[in-house]
């Protein structure tokens, strides 16, 4: 089955609200064996909704709509769908009871505008909103299914999980779609593609390989499509094994998680701790780590030593080292690691010092120059990176590269000994 998503709301088009609904729906439906072929974001205008529906129904048998079901005048989706399906709006008793119960529980007066949310097109199947007042609507037309849901994410998610997917599974025999993800670091997309080109050329036609590059990272996704889950899993494991054998030194994890989640998971499994000394990243790595559950088992401390004085006073960096080599140098990065290890007693430490930009660079150290050091109680290893001249990108690249450098220290310390 192929499907399309239509998200409705001017707030999406002007960037006031980020469309997270489509990403979640796409991931959830894909896991259920439904392929999303297009996502449409449109304004709160009846003619746009009607025109988009007409186009989508020519391509797909399942259309999922979010947004425009609120009680205010700018929410016109329900009225437009009633017009599109040539159906009057009628009060649905079950929806009215749901709205009434919610307002009673909140001890708030039920206004006429709230009661109108129980009105739905007469020819739809109602999807009761277990997390809010606006009901969803299930329509069928010429063999196609159109589902309209609230734009509030937690309301929409509950509706998809508890009603839409069960109804689809009861109606259709959905195929299996299985993914296997490999997160890599330290190698560019084109070089990676060249290394595994022979494997890619020999993939079965029902297995697809996608390259998903990010800043200093590349995620590979092998996707299998078919009816037999067991066979798909076996083939995906076989093909991922071929790729693994070629690029093992660049692999961070084979789970569909972030690099920081992979690092935290590895440290928890090994019962090891981490401390951070950040300069140009300004605490961004600490933020990435502490945003994860379980971070308290891993992170002992993070110091944002942005100034030279902070590097000296809080991390014990020798002021003469800064004078001789500059704050952005291998020597200072290494002393930052040694200092934070001494202060915290952690098993591992990372230090980052660089020139994020857009100014501050020199001929010898242009904007984007970053030194990253990682170490433990035995050794400290540093590496120089030259990124671009975009500040935000340099900070993110530095964080990802630092976590990748730490991963190498954890998994393959002999590689760092050879490089240093």
Jot down its keywords.
single chain, 420 residues, alpha/beta, 6-stranded mixed β-sheet, 5-stranded mixed β-sheet, 17 helices, 43% helix
Write structural notes for this entry.
The protein is α/β, with parallel strands linked by helices and 420 residues long. Strand 16 and strand 17 form a beta hairpin. It contains 17 helices and 17 strands. The mean pLDDT is 95. The protein is elongated, with a radius of gyration of 27 Å.
- Rounded Rg: 27 Å
Work out the strand percent. Answer: 15-25%
- The overall pLDDT, averaged over residues, is 95
Major sheet characteristics: 6 strands, mixed
In percent, how helical is the residue content? 40-55%
List low-pLDDT spans.
none
Quick overview of this protein structure:
This protein is α/β, with parallel strands linked by helices. The protein has 17 helices and 17 strands.
Show the helix and strand layout.
Layout: E1 2-8, H1 10-13, H2 20-31, E2 35-42, H3 46-59, E3 62-66, H4 77-84, E4 89-91, H5 93-105, H6 112-115, E5 119-121, E6 125-127, E7 136-141, E8 144-149, H7 153-171, E9 176-185, H8 189-195, H9 197-201, E10 207-214, E11 217-226, H10 229-247, E12 251-253, H11 259-270, E13 274-278, H12 284-290, E14 299-304, H13 308-315, H14 319-325, H15 330-344, E15 348-354, E16 369-375, E17 380-386, H16 391-411, H17 413-419
Parallel strand pairs: 1-2, 1-3, 3-8, 13-14, 13-15
Antiparallel strand pairs: 4-5, 6-7, 7-8, 9-11, 9-12, 10-11, 15-16, 16-17
Helix pairs in contact: 2-7, 11-16, 16-17
């Amino acid at each position: 089955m192929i499907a399309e998503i239509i998200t409705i709301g001017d707030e999406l088009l002007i960037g006031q609200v980020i469309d997270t609904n489509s990403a979640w729906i796409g991931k959830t439906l894909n896991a259920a064996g439904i392929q999303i072929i297009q996502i449409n974001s449109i304004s709160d205008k009846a003619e746009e909704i009607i025109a988009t529906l007409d186009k989508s129904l020519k391509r797909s048998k399942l259309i999922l709509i979010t947004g425009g079901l609120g009680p205010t005048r700018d929410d016109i989706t329900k009225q437009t769908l009633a017009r599109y399906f040539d159906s009057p709006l009628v009060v649905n008793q079950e929806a009215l009871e749901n709205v009434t119960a919610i307002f009673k529980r909140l001890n708030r007066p039920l206004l006429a505008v709230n009661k109108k949310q129980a009105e739905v097109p007469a020819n739809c199947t109602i999807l009761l909103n277990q997390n809010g007042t606006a009901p969803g609507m299930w329509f069928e037309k010429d063999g196609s299914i159109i589902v309209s849901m609230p734009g509030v994410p937690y309301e929409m998610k509950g509706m998809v999980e508890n009603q839409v997917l069960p109804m689809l599974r009861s109606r259709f025999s959905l195929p299996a779609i299985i993914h296997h993800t490999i997160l890599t670091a330290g190698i560019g997309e084109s070089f990676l593609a060249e290394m595994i080109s022979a494997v890619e050329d020999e993939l079965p036609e029902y297995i697809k390989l996608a390259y998903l590059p990010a800043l200093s990272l590349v995620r590979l996704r092998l996707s299998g499509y078919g009816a037999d889950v067991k066979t798909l899993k076996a083939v995906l494991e076989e093909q991922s094994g071929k790729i693994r054998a070629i690029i093992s030194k660049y692999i961070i994890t084979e789970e569909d998680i972030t690099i920081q989640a992979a690092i935290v998971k590895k440290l928890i499994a090994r019962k090891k701790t981490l401390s951070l000394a950040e300069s140009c990243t300004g605490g961004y790595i600490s933020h990435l780590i502490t945003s994860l559950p379980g971070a308290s088992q891993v992170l002992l401390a993070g110091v944002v030593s942005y100034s030279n004085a902070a590097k000296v006073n809080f991390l014990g960096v020798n002021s003469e080292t800064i004078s001789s080599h500059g704050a952005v140098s291998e020597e200072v990065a290494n002393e930052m690691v040694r200092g934070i290890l001494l202060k915290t007693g952690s098993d591992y430490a990372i230090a980052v010092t660089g020139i994020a930009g857009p100014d501050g660079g020199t001929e010898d150290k242009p904007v984007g120059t970053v030194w990253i050091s990682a170490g433990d109680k035995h050794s400290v290893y540093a590496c120089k990176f030259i990124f671009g001249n975009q500040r935000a990108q340099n900070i993110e690249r530095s964080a990802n590269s630092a976590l990748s450098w730490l991963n190498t220290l954890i998994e393959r310390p002999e590689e760092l000994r050879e490089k240093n």
